[in-house]
Write a structure and sequence with these properties.
heterodimer; A: mainly alpha; 11 helices; 0% strand; B: mainly alpha; Arc Repressor Mutant, subunit A; 12% strand
Chain lengths: 299, 118
């Protein structure tokens, strides 16, 4: 390639990365400026401008990507400061989708999960891109302080009610079924395995009751503190272990079909809790100390 | 630690230089100049600016209304000449004042810190 061809190739590579309306004008200017720069470079070397000097000069000018990015403010889909958030969201979504997989009995579920993960990542890219485009157009909003230790009292009370309903539903499903169906009996295929009911099921009720007590304390206090956070993590870990034990220990229902679905449901739920627990632990370990602050230790 | 700082030094120096590129360019554009001519004028004053940084910067400043531009074809090759707009003159004045303040503050900091870093 001769000098003109090199310059043309470089200018084309730069301008192709620019918005369409800027291309021709920028190409005309850049081509002339590069010629002048390269002639000057050759003169400084005491020789004629040749392809070798031109190539060196163009490389010194910068990569076409870098130069193009300097010509305008490019739209950044995932800003550097949000890359970790994107990575976490993508990973968490993929894990959740994998966790839900056992619920499906479809032989093509592997393909479906792969597609679902791709769709999730695509949705994330669209969300982050839209957020970035809005920020670019409107400018960053002023920071709004968030009190991470504040407790939503109404939310806590709603969760207590949900736990109560859950205990009733799992402890006395036949009674609950009769209440909603004008006295009809629960289908026999949904009867619990006797050992499960007698030895394992009560464990989860005790753990849920402890969680309800914790929520009641939070609703009264209105704030988290480090001790309550540790208790919360401990109870969640307990529930996760209990569910894992249920999956490993044997039958939940007397009949095989509901048992299969029941175990799949339990394993998915245990995995979701484990993921949530992992994120809470990671965030807890990575968070900075609250007041009163600890002086950072130098290595 | 020293090695890391030493390896990063060229990048940090480049960043420091880039901070003054806009003011340097504006200072030389009270009269119209084209890109290469502007870079030479700045270089003659002792400030070397990468061409890959300066030329795109001129276009961006023009898009922001700081510079005006026009094509001139009376020479051997068509050249785009840039000059300060009214808004650009105001910006230049403001940046000059900021630079003076910064310069004064940095002089004091460097004098109290010692020039050789010891």
């Amino acid at each position: 390639m001769d000098v003109d061809m090199l310059i043309d190739a470089y200018v084309r590579d730069v301008t192709q990365l620019l918005p369409r309306k800027q291309r021709n004008d920028t190409a005309l200017e850049l081509r002339e400026l590069l010629r002048e720069e390269l002639r000057s470079r050759a003169a400084a070397c005491g020789g004629e401008l040749d392809a070798k000097i031109a190539l060196e000069g163009l490389r010194a000018f910068g990569t076409p990507q870098d130069v193009a990015a300097r010509y305008y403010e490019p739209w950044i889909i995932i800003p550097a400061a949000r890359t970790r958030s994107f990575g976490f969201a993508a990973l968490a979504g993929a894990l959740v989708l994998l966790a839900l997989t056992p619920l499906s009995d479809d032989p093509s579920r592997g393909d479906q999960v792969a597609l679902a993960i791709l769709a999730w990542v695509g949705c994330l890219v669209a969300y982050f891109g839209l957020w970035s485009a809005v920020q670019r157009r409107t400018g960053a909003k002023a920071w709004v302080p968030r009190d991470r230790d504040a407790v939503n009292r109404a939310g806590s009370l709603a969760l207590i009610a949900l736990i109560g309903a859950g205990i009733v539903a799992y402890a006395a499903p036949a009674w609950l079924f009769a209440q909603f169906t004008h006295g009809h009996a629960l289908p026999t295929r949904l009867a619990y395995d006797a050992t499960f009911r007698a030895t394992r099921l009560p464990v989860i009720f005790v753990l849920w009751a402890c969680q309800a007590v914790l929520l009641a304390i939070l609703a009264v206090r209105g704030r988290w503190n480090p001790v309550l956070r540790r208790v919360d993590l401990g109870l969640e870990a307990g529930v996760t272990l209990a569910l894992t034990w249920f999956v490993a220990a044997g039958a939940v229902f007397q009949e095989s079909v509901p048992n299969k679905f029941g175990l799949a449901y339990l394993s998915s739920f245990a995995l979701l809790l484990a993921i949530d627990l992992g994120f809470k632990l990671y965030r807890g370990l990575g968070s900075v100390a609250s007041l009163p602050g600890r002086a950072p230790t130098s290595a | 630690m020293w090695r890391m700082a030493h390896e990063n030094a060229p990048g940090l120096e480049l960043e420091l230089r880039r901070g003054v590129v806009v003011l340097a360019a504006l200072s030389q554009l009270r009269a119209p100049r084209y890109g290469y001519e502007l870079r030479r004028a700045i270089a003659e004053c002792g400030l070397l600016i990468e061409e890959g940084t300066l030329y795109p910067l001129l276009r961006r400043l023009e898009q922001q209304g700081v510079l005006t531009s026009e094509w001139r074809t009376n020479g051997a090759a068509p050249r785009r000449y840039y000059a300060l707009s009214t808004e650009g003159r105001r910006l230049y004045k403001r940046l000059t004042e900021t630079w003076s303040d910064l310069n004064g503050a940095m002089d004091k900091l460097l004098a109290s810190g010692g020039r050789d870093g010891r």
